[in-house]
Amino acid sequence: MTIGIIGLGYVGLTLAVAASTHGVDVYGVETNRHIKDCLKQNRAHFYEPGLDNLIQRTSGKTFYVAEGFPEDVKFDAFIITVGTPLKKGSEEPNFEYIKSALLSIKGVYDGSQLVILRSTVSVGTTRRIVLPFLAGMCGKPEGEVLVSMCPERTLEGVAVEELTHLPQIVSGNNRKSVEIAQALFRHMTPCVVEAESLEEAELIKLYCNTYRDMTFAIGNAFCMAAQKFGVDGVSAIQHAIELLWHPVCAYNGFKFGVIR
User: Fold this and answer.
1) What angle is formed at CA 234 by the lines to CA 230 and CA 237, rounded to 5 degrees?
2) Among 71, 129, 59, which residue's Cα sits nearest to residue 100?
3) Which of 194, 219, 233, 260 fits a 20 to 30 Å CA distance from 28?
4) Which of 16, 117, 8, 150 is closest to 67 using CA atoms?
5) pTM here?
């Protein structure tokens, strides 16, 4: 497969490298000068274990950084990794970054390629914003346009490993979109989980983010409480986890419907 990635920040670059080391030709487009300068030197603009070595192995072979997508290349999919910050002084999301990213593929997009949204977005963004924008750009009915929401779940420090080992969530506005997304991510990982809709995939991403935030928050709260009593909070949390996941406790928790 051949894909284009718009945005080579943390999410886009780690995905590009993971894909390009697993049989996918990747063309990446980035507007940030610092990021492009680093990639010209075959290194990332951030630290991730082993990433620079992978960039050096794939650069110019299966991973290409370009100013724009070449018109003589047949692309199977484009992946949008840019964010959707809030509008200044408002709680409304700013979709201009996404629209700008979509415009960057205009010269090579004809409606036959899959467009994947990868970043965190508000529920409904893929169907209400991306889908009609693409339909207008290629002149096809929305039902024929191929769109997927495949949220990222990368953890700093193990991003490339996670991309090749953790299940990947895929979704689509029609069956063909789902099948192309599955084919792409199965190049990297043997396990792909299909969401029932674009909206469910968007919610999964928000749920994962919220769950992680809550986990960090309660861990900090537990440690602060422990410090008041001169107790090592990390040790107390670890022992509590060992207790909760002891075979007898786990069995009783399941038996009596205790939520852990």
Assistant:
1) 105
2) 129
3) 194
4) 8
5) 0.88
